[in-house]
Amino acid sequence: MSKILEGLYYSESHEYVKVEGNIGFIGITDYAQHELGNVVYVDVPEVDDEVTAGEEFGAVESVKAASDLMSPVSGTVIEVNEALEDEPGLVNKDAFENWIIKVEISDLGELDNLMTAEAYKAFIGE
Amino acid sequence: MADEKKTCLYDKHVALGALMSPFAGFNMPIQYKGIVEEHNAVRNQVGVFDVSHMGEVEITGPEAEKFVNYIFTNDIKDAPLGKIYYGMMLYPDGGTVDDLLVYKVAENDFFLVINAGNIDKDVAWINEHAAQFDVKVDHQSDYYGQLAVQGPESEKALLDILKIDATDLVFYTFKKLEYDGETIIVSRTGYTGEDGFEIYASHTAINKMWDLLVEAGVQPCGLGCRDTLRFEVGLPLYGDELTAEISPIMATLSIFVKLDKEDFIGKEACAKQKEEGSAKKLVGLELKDKAIARHGYEVMQGDKVVGYITTGYRGISVEKSLAFALVDREAGTLGNELNVKIRKKVFPAEVVKKRFYKKSYKK
What we know:
heterodimer, A: alpha+beta, CATH 2.40.50.100, six-stranded antiparallel β-sheet, three-stranded antiparallel β-sheet, 35% strand, globular, B: Gyrase A, domain 2, Alpha-Beta Plaits, Elongation Factor Tu (Ef-tu), domain 3, 3 domains, 21% helix
């Protein structure tokens, strides 16, 4: 049974965005980290890079394969989680605590295209 | 998915909660606990793999030795009984049909172990050429299940748990023995770089042995760590490092291609590649960064594409980003600085030896 946090927004490609004002913390869900297995590398954009909703902004690599990271919202990267550079496995330990990038969201209306915790729970069949 | 075959241990994998995935026409376990834990179990203790998907073909008859030596790159002429040879079957142009093991069972009796994904192709290839020889080709893949028990404690696991004494076997030898009323084959072979054994037996016996090993605490291991283990010690995987386009000479496996023996299919092409130098060459790469080079990614020298990645991982026993790549021969000199294109970025990599981690065979 995967952990799903209330109040976050979820994408079909298993990213979440936690919103505080117009700031979004983007990461992969607990379900996704479990499906991937041991995360060994997280490829992140740089601060000031633009990300676009539904488009790739990086990748998370398990031992076996690379999976693209798709941004749930559009905006500008204001911070990357540097702890993941030395310890990518933190994503496995707590996927919600260990967000990947922090963005300034350009259009809060895009959140309406994402799933609620309840809808995501149904989406992954739990 | 519906068309994928199952091995005789399929239900046990599902019951253990394995992550199952299609591989070579079979629905196979990729991991149980996790690739890293399973990998480390094999490097440090012992693990058991279901490799029942592998194919088996027995060749007998008055011309069996002559025939096998004609389709196989290694030399099995006058081989001692109980010895195993690694080598390839080749197309006339030197491209690889498959890489395989040949067990010498008796005079003019050879047991061939072939890759699961190549079974149909190999059997057709063997039969096609067998027509010109006085031999019998017996395809036995449906009868045999196979376990690989691998790791430094594997000899002890066989002895204590399965009551199979294989202490007399040295690396790349085998014996037949009685187990539960049937004759099974036990060999000191594997695909992990560690000491280990492979057992060929009926589905019933394989199920029994699997249960005994797992109940005794031997870690079940999936194909995920089988790949990381073989990769770290520089072993090729058919489909990645050997293909119809990649000869064993390009893959730097010429030690298994005996150019001084009598004629065999692909000999002329290999001799030419050896003499003139093949256009492409398989090399090891070490990336300076933590980014991981995956199969198919482009390898560049400056702006010029000189090859592609065949396999790449963040090593588990060697904590570096490592890869095998097939590159233009001139670009593949040890110490050469190349670049690997990973998604949108380019990462520097150095050409290094392919054996990233030391093998620990019991010879």
